[in-house]
Amino acid sequence: MLDWRSSGALLTGWTQSTDFPVTAGAIQSALKGTQQNAFLARINTGATVGNGTVGSYATYFGGTGVDQGTSVALDTNLSTYFAGDTTSLDLQTQSPLQAHNNGGSDAFAVKLGTAADLAICGKQSAELKCLATQPAPFVASAGSQVTFVYTVTNNGPDLATNITVTDNLSASGIPVTFNSATATSGSCSQTATGNNVAVCTISSLQSGSTATVTIVVTPTAAGNFNGGAVSVSAPNNTDPDPTNNSAMVSGQATDFTLSVSPKNQTIAAAGVTAVYSVTLTPVPVYATNISLSVSGLPTAAGFTFTPSSTVSLPTSSPSTATLNITTEDCRSCGLVCPIRTAGPPTCLRWDQDSYDSERNSGRHLHHHGHRDFRHTVA
Predict the structure, then answer these.
(1) Between 142 and 374, where is the model more confident?
(2) What are the structural domain ranges in the chain?
């Protein structure tokens, strides 16, 4: 049988030869018994690495009786079907409809999938080598996106079809948010909202070829983590080496703490500037620039940071910025001012204890190194 889809010829028949030229990894490597066995062979007419073909092979198939192959066919997934008849009582079977010969000559039918060694390796985008397991963790900033790159390789000998790459992000070690997933020769999606499993499908991969899967996530807390448990599989494929079907890339997500001094400050009158010292401490390092801002100020109040509202932490040492909160006397801006006959003066207050409480309870969140200052008027 000739098949243009796989660039080869399929043959079946019978042989009594003890030196039939079987290939490495054959289903049956020697003549069984002293009579005859069926054989199945494939001759690759386009046997060039990188072609979308199935490799050449040849195998005996039979028992200690008389066996012969009579027909062969191929389906769209490149699975091979061959049939024949046998008198053997010991013909090898797997999940058979009929396990044994019922006397005389019985028919047999066999389905064989493709045999391709699929391998996967991974790295964080800045790392140089793609490995199944990286020797040392990389460092990333909590709240910032991290890109993982995985390479799927078909080591052959056959064309692999319907390949699936699965990334179980629930095994990442710390909470991560799925951002995106792409494949160079396929498509990707999340299997369901909230379960943090990304699935990429690659329709086919030629022997000797590779495909790249890129997955982007954001760690939302500090700690040791990884890009999830990543694996590659193909349902129609017999993989001769399943030990290289998985990869895991480890990293460390770092964070920073923020403190403001003084904790409380009062200004005696509108128009006076309140000055605070803001200290940011990396835990243990933090490579992403931090953007500072203020919210909740009274009407007509403003703020500046010196030397800048963007703070970097180039080492493991803290960095500081000065927060200046400016107020404006309402009498100078044309507003009608209430006459206060008694009571305390207007004041601006930074409440560090409230900030720490909200941060520890999870209600005060930050993303991409952003901190929000909250002020109250008393």
Answers:
(1) 142
(2) 2-112, 116-254, 262-377
